[in-house]
């Protein structure tokens, strides 16, 4: 009898707790509207929204490969399963055409859709919550004036209970802090503009901050480096692995054009970011660069001295040697006594990376490469396997992929040679296994064209720079 009473009490407590959680998690539906006419929006507001959409990189996540812009359907791999981006065109049935401005702002501010469903944080509302109502209204005006596209996103591939959206309310209770960006009076307007864009609409921390076991950004480790779509997003704080320290001028040039002579070209998801940032007002890119440079802080004397020394080294390297020397590109010893990685480098890499042809059309000197000096080999493996595709219809850097040429052992030998020759960092571990894992193709690997080269210098070694 006593046991039955205890069980009954426990059941009541559980039911009360469950009811309380459901009450906490429940969000009401916001009434649907008739899709507004595009001409009902002020042209200046729409233009402002276009700039904000570029700053937020909205088209990259909400457009599937070969799909229509903003029509969704992009597969976003996560440690928990695959989430597909939604259609944010004004289509009334499959997009947001029946969303009111209030519904759109709630999604941005609270991560809840028009019907009251909690959104997965793959949509980075933990950053978008910082966006002001005025900017949200401009974004809404821009999106509602796009061409409607009827396109239903595939169903998310998530296991139970993660496929139950009420669970997300618990995630939010643990990790989500709602509210717009607060001005920091200790800094000037340019710094605050940069902080607002980086922390908010730009959601840079979504990639460049490590995440905990539940997929939330690690508090206290903002910009300490992370992972995105199979690529390493390098640290943007004092732990940046860049051999030549970044400064605000270099950051601005890189963000606006997708390349910098001392840091290489954008690739992976970052190529799309720089492509968008190349279209926004110069003062916004400058503000972002100013803020990120302040997060990084001034380099130590040792780091600056090392970077200066690297920049003074000749641009031509003889494969098979550790020294940077000028001269012809030859293998200095007999092939049968040569390290396999050095031989592969000499045959596949040296003609671009050691030819002295300037960026963005020549390969970066690998002693300046963050990828070669980084903590994880994922990025160099991705680039070597899949290359850098040319940007369609414009001059751009390009690199062939060696996926069908080098086996896993040869890739590992090449990576060991590059790491040993062009870096003073510890050796990467388990390279063959890492190459095999990336090569498997069990995740979608997209390598975007590095673009934004309109400000690139003329290529003195080619008559046709559109290759």
Compact overview of the structure:
By secondary structure, the chain is mainly alpha-helical. The protein has helices at about 1-25, 45-55, 60, 100-110, 125-130, 135-145, 165-175, 190-200, 205-210, 250-255, 270-275, 280-295, 300-310, 340-350, 350-355, 370-375, 380-385, 410-420, 430-440, and strands spanning about 75-80, 80-85, 225-230, 230-235, 260, 265. It contains 19 helices and six strands.
Write structural notes for this entry.
The protein folds into 3 domains: 143 residues; 106 residues, Orthogonal Bundle (Cytochrome Bc1 Complex, Chain D, domain 2), CATH 1.10.760; 141 residues, Orthogonal Bundle (Cytochrome Bc1 Complex, Chain D, domain 2). Strand 1 and strand 2 form a beta hairpin. The N terminus and C terminus are likely disordered. The strands form 3 sheets. Strands 1-2 form a two-stranded antiparallel sheet. 40% of the residues are buried. With 467 residues, the chain is mainly alpha-helical.
Task: Note the topology.
Elements: H1 2-25, H2 43-55, H3 58-61, E1 75-78, E2 81-84, H4 101-110, H5 125-128, H6 133-143, H7 167-175, H8 189-201, H9 205-208, E3 226-228, E4 231-233, H10 248-257, E5 259-260, E6 264-265, H11 269-277, H12 282-296, H13 301-312, H14 340-348, H15 350-353, H16 370-373, H17 378-386, H18 408-422, H19 431-439
Helix pairs in contact: 2-6, 4-6, 8-12, 10-11, 10-12, 14-18, 17-19, 18-19
């Amino acid at each position: 009898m006593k046991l039955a009473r205890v069980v009954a009490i426990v059941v009541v407590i559980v039911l009360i707790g469950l009811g309380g959680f459901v009450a906490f998690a429940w969000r009401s539906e916001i009434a649907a509207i008739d899709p507004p006419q595009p001409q009902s929006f002020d042209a200046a507001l729409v233009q402002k929204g276009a700039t904000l959409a570029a700053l937020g990189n909205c088209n990259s996540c909400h457009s599937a490969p070969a799909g229509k812009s903003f029509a969704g359907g992009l597969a976003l791999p996560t440690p928990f399963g695959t989430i597909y981006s939604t259609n944010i065109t004004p289509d009334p049935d499959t997009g947001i055409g029946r969303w009111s401005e209030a519904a759109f702002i709630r999604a941005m501010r609270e991560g809840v859709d028009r019907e009251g469903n909690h959104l997965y944080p793959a949509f980075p509302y933990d950053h978008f919550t910082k966006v002001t109502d005025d900017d949200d209204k401009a974004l809404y005006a821009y999106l509602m004036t796009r061409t409607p596209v009827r396109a239903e996103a595939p169903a998310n591939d998530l296991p139970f209970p993660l496929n139950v959206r009420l669970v997300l309310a618990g995630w939010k209770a643990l990790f989500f802090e709602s509210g717009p960006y607060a001005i920091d009076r200790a800094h000037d307007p340019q710094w605050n503009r940069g902080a607002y864009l980086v922390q908010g609409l730009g959601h840079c921390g979504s990639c460049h901050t490590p995440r905990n076991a539940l997929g939330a950004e690690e508090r206290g480790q903002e910009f300490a480096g992370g992972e995105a779509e199979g690529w390493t997003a390098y640290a943007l704080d004092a732990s940046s692995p860049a051999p030549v320290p970044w400064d605000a001028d270099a950051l601005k040039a890189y963000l606006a054009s997708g390349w910098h002579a001392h840091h290489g070209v954008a690739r992976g998801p970052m190529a799309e970011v720089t492509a968008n940032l190349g279209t926004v007002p110069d003062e916004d890119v400058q503000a972002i660069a100013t803020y990120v440079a302040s997060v990084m802080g001034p380099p130590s004397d040792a780091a600056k001295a090392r970077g200066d020394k690297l920049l003074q080294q000749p641009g031509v390297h003889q494969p098979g040697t550790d020294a940077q020397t000028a001269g012809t590109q030859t293998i200095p010893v007999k092939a049968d006594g040569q390290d396999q990685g050095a031989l592969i480098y000499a045959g596949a890499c040296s003609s671009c990376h050691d030819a002295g042809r300037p960026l963005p059309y020549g390969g970066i000197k690998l002693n300046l490469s963050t990828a070669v000096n980084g903590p994880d080999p994922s990025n160099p493996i991705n680039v070597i396997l899949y290359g850098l595709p040319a940007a369609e219809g414009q001059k751009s850097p390009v690199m062939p992929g060696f996926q069908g040429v080098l086996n896993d052992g040869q890739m590992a030998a090449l990576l060991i040679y590059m790491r040993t020759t062009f870096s003073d960092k510890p050796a990467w571990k388990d390279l063959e296994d890492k190459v095999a894992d990336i090569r498997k193709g069990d995740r979608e690997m997209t390598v975007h064209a590095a673009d934004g080269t309109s400000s690139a210098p003329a290529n003195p070694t080619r008559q046709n720079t559109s290759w």
